[in-house]
Amino acid sequence: MLMAAEPLNSISKGLGLGLGLGKLNLRGRNGVSIKLGRGECKWKASMNLITNPDAFQVGPFLGSYGFFNVTSYSGFKSGVDYDYLSEDVGKLRTQDVGEGGVNIRLYEGRITQGSLRGTSVLFKVYPGQRTGGAEADMMAANELSTHVFLQSCSNETCQNLLMLLGGFETTTGEQWLAFRYNGKYSAADYAKISSEKLTKNKSLDPQSYWNPFEQGQTFKRRRYFVIKMLQGIFNGLVYMHAHDRLHQSLGPASVVLNTISEREAPYLVAKLRDFAFSVDISYSSLEKGPGSLSEGLWRRAIAAGAYNTMEKRNFGIADDIYEAGLLFAYLAFAPFCETDIMDSLSLQFGTDPNVALAFGYCSADDRLLEAVQFLDLGDGAGWELLQAMLNPDYRKRPVAAAVQNHRFVTGALL
């Protein structure tokens, strides 16, 4: 099915909506040229994005999802990505979030013309202003501009970021962004499927639930798979921070995987996606003031005592690290526990930066044994990293490069 559509003209307009960016110029119907000027930092980037709607064929509908807006730090409340966490204990310090009104649709598709003919794509569809309001256009514009910047600011592309190939606008105002198709599964899908497998295998024969050798091999492969996934996640985050961009919506659903087969772990590539709330933290951009999509971040920065430009920049980076720490905690537990356990699990880190409370709580529950043993590797290296990433004091959290090089993440302990 071919969509009747127009070029990305409303996304072009959206680039001027408080995002601190320059002008987007469409070259005919086959490319994009962006010219930005920020104080003394002036550069020109050119990409051959495909903007001709006739060059795409739209395939099956894959699903839809919404976004959450971060508003503040406080006690944890159940949400989409972490609904297994109980509110009874609920002392894990995280962001309070409110569900936004923008609903995103996903479709498979392919490119039918040009040098990339036959290339599989994943369409991410933002609603037009009639249904999604101005926020939808701003989010689409922000995601577009972030990908264009990150894919243009280096001679080498980062393999751990989803690649934008082009897009178009339909006659109804919907923004269709086309990404290279790298698989339909996310880290959230992997964790859910892994947990369900554990539950199913045990229910089939509870008395002879695997022999020790098979069980050991299964969890050995799982540990390696999760570590390989974390390496990709943190490598992508390092690249973004090194190029002055925050992710700001990092969660299990924001990581796409090319495979969920643990036997294929050596070939696993984890890629970050969902840059709708990405924030430019270059000093020149920070001096211009907050954009519409980053006001909440900078309110939280001021509340945490970050007032000047350098402090705000450091807070933003630490904020991404906190989100990455929550994702790390999720991936350290969800794939290693049965579904019914995860439905009622509470991770009690409290407000103390020491994770002794969490360790004691989890170690006392035999159902969490495999997750605890995973974090215990290297005399508790996993707990050590969690403690650092989830430190209530943003000034004491490590930068992404330090997390990437931590002995737990490098795989040296496996």
Automatic annotation (TrEMBL):
GO MF terms, alphabetically ordered: ATP binding; protein kinase activity
Occurrences of domain Protein kinase (ranges): 91-409
Gene Ontology cellular component list: chloroplast
The protein's name in its UniProt record: Protein kinase domain-containing protein
Source species of the chain: Chenopodium quinoa
High-level lineage: Eukaryota, Viridiplantae, Streptophyta, Embryophyta, Tracheophyta
